[in-house]
Amino acid sequence: MTENCVRAEGVRKAFGDNKVLNGVSFEVAQGSATTIIGPSGSGKTTLLRALNALDVPDAGVIRVGDVELDFSKPVAKDQLRAYRAQSGFVFQSHNLFPHKTALQNVTEGPIVVQKRPKEAAEAEAAELLDQVGLAEKKDQYPFQLSGGQQQRVGIARALALKPKVVLFDEPTSALDPELVGEVLSVIRDLAVEGWTLVIVTHEIQFARQVSDQVLFTDRGVILEQGPPSEVIGDPKEERTRQFLDRILNPL
């Protein structure tokens, strides 16, 4: 039986009176790709950020990799640090250091956070940049790169931490349409290679192609989950059908 890399039970998060996550539970198998889809404001990005404690949940138990935390109780800083170390996060808007080259952006985490030897970290970073098609751009700065290239550096940066799971927050939403394909292609390759991925996306056809599991969120709950052939191809819930119809058949 495949081991679960992520397991969430009863996760809750509110911002003031706005209850964004209302008791969310799901699992992600090791080596699988899970996509989270749903309307704006449905809680999908907050759910993803909870898996890295960028947004610390108010309640619920989450296990990521080797670390499990019960957010119903106070969590110590060292526990949070160990929890965050299990995952790599790819942001919507790249979040690269503007004063560092592509190579330096990728080596920052391994050298500064993980205290790995500089020479080894740089060699691995060069390999990762080659993997995402940017070997010749390693000495360029973010302002010299296209949006799609910056996002691929962001992916290499996340992989450099050797995380148990890679989290993607709408990785193509800030890109020009002609650059979307190059980023989705890299993510597709990672799925084939067996990385564990959790991806918030509005690219429904991509979700259909790359996912082992699709979660449809609405109003802070997972309304429907399963393989893409079911959730996207033959949804059970009327709300899921409405959402997909609006996305796939726009006026």
Write out key terms for the chains shown:
single chain; 251 residues; alpha/beta; six-stranded mixed β-sheet; four-stranded antiparallel β-sheet; 9 helices
Explain what you see:
With 251 residues, the chain is an alpha/beta fold. 37% of the residues lie in helices and 25% in strands. The chain contains 9 helices and 10 strands. It has helices at residues 44-50, 77-84, 102-113, 118-131, 147-160, 177-193, 204-210, 228-231, 238-248; strands spanning 4-15, 18-29, 33-37, 59-64, 67-70, 87-90, 165-169, 197-200, 213-218, 221-226. A 6-stranded mixed sheet has the order 6-7-8-3-9-10, sandwiched between helices. It is globular and about 50 Å long.
Question: What layout of secondary structure does this protein have?
Answer:
Elements lengths: L3 E12 L2 E12 L3 E5 L6 H7 L8 E6 L2 E4 L6 H8 L2 E4 L11 H12 L4 H14 L15 H14 L4 E5 L7 H17 L3 E4 L3 H7 L2 E6 L2 E6 L1 H4 L6 H11 L3
Parallel strand pairs: 3-8, 3-9, 6-7, 7-8
Antiparallel strand pairs: 1-2, 1-4, 4-5, 9-10
Helix pairs in contact: 3-4, 3-5, 4-5, 5-6
Give the terminus-to-terminus CA distance: 45 Å
Number of helices: 9
What is the makeup of the main sheet?
6 strands, mixed
Task: Label the structural class.
Answer: alpha/beta
The helix content, as a percent range, equals 25-40%
> Strand-residue fraction?
25-35%
Q: What is the H/E string?
A: EEEHEEHEHHHEHEHEEHH
Mean pLDDT: 93
Strand order of the largest sheet: 6-7-8-3-9-10
How many strand units? 10
User: Which parts are unreliable, with pLDDT below 50 for 5 consecutive residues or more?
Assistant: none
Rg, Cα atoms, Å: 18 Å
Shape summary:
globular
